[in-house]
Structure formats: C-alpha cells, structure tokens
Design a protein that fits this description.
The chain is an alpha+beta fold. About 30% of the residues lie in helices and about 25% in strands.
C-alpha cells in the first residue's frame, strides 16, 4: 500500500510539474518550437513533459529553468519571496515533492522556499547498473552526496569509480559527467545536494 501511495504521489508531482512548465512557457508567450530552441530540449520531449507523460532528468530541468528564465523551485510549487532574510524551511518525513526519473526516486526538500542557493534531495537510487542511464549527468554547479543506507558507486568521466558505504560522503563538480548506482542488494538512499546554475541570474 505504501508503494502504491508513493507511486501515485510521484505521478501527481510529474503532472503538476508539467503544468507549471507549460504555464511558464505561456507566460513568456512562447510557442513549443521557440521554447524548445531556447531550452535545448526537443519539441517532442518538452510537449511530453508539459502533459505529464515524461519525467525529466535534473539536467533537462536545469535546461528548462535557464531557457524559460524561471526558478527551479517554482516548478515544484515554491512560492516564497526571494532574498528574504532569516528564511527557514521545515520538511516533515516523506512530505517533500516527489519526482522520478530513470534510476532515481527523488524527494525534493524545502520546497516552500524559492530562489534557493542549493537544492536538497533525498534520493532512493533504483539503478544498479549503468545500463539504466542513456548518458552521463552533467550540468553547472557542484554537488554533495551523503549515503544514508546501502552502498553506492559513483561513476565519473575523469575518475575511477568511487565506492561509498553508509556514512560516506562525496563532493564533486557537476560539470563532470557522472552517474550513481546502488551496489547493495537493496536500493541505496542518499542525501544529495546540488548548487549553482539553477537560479537564473540577470544577463545569463
């Protein structure tokens, strides 16, 4: 029953995200073709995302954020005022915004804050081999991951595979192609933070 509820929550979040992407495109008075060119995402993929038929990877979400000049947090329903002093956010257990894509079941935390300098996720890594991915993950910024349970192998374009167990952590440059898989029998769980390149800046 818990798995069924989680799947339904993930599907609803994908649908909600798609509607927000479409609303942002229409607010900028952009056709699918123009938005596709600005975002560097195919027209077909963008249409599927808008209609909740495709769950985009983090890399694709970042392209959409930059192309449409919106805040990534807003795609997940964040609505707080930017640059407010003394901000804080509380996320109760299992109350984050869920998003799934190949190899990962993500829960975005602190979703009530927009324009964040970093994006915290709790991720269940369902991929157990690199075959689960079409390509390396690669985007602007830096990332940090901490293994909560299970074991993980982070593959990289520049380094030999790095094996991590519960309690281990790793900080790396997001621009280097990377992919993480679970090497334990069960799916690994990690706290994953991404920073940089996700909040549009004037003139970029």
């Amino acid at each position: 029953m818990a798995t069924r509820n989680t799947d339904a929550s993930t599907e609803q979040s994908t649908s909600d995200l798609g509607r927000r992407v479409k609303a942002a495109r229409l607010a900028n008075d952009l056709t699918l073709e123009t938005a596709s060119r600005l975002c560097g995402v195919s027209r077909s993929a963008l249409s599927k995302i808008e209609n909740g038929l495709m769950s985009p990877t983090f890399d694709v979400l970042q392209k959409i954020v930059r192309g449409l000049e919106i805040d990534l947090g807003a795609l997940f329903g964040s609505a707080s005022a930017p640059n407010a002093s003394g901000r804080r956010s509380l996320t109760r257990r299992d109350q984050g915004q869920r998003h799934a894509y190949r190899g990962y079941q993500m829960e975005l935390l602190a979703t009530d804050l927009a324009h964040k300098a970093m994006l915290p996720f709790r991720i269940r890594i369902t991929a157990h081999t690199l075959d689960a991915f079409d390509d390396w993950g690669r985007h602007e910024g830096e990332e940090f991951l901490y293994v909560i349970s299970g074991s993980v192998c982070l593959y990289s374009e520049l380094y030999t595979p790095t094996h991590l167990n519960a309690g281990d952590s790793l900080y790396f440059d997001s621009r280097t192609g990377h992919a993480a898989v679970s090497t334990s029998e069960e799916d690994a769980e990690v706290l994953w933070m991404a920073t940089g390149g996700v909040v549009p800046q004037a003139g970029t």
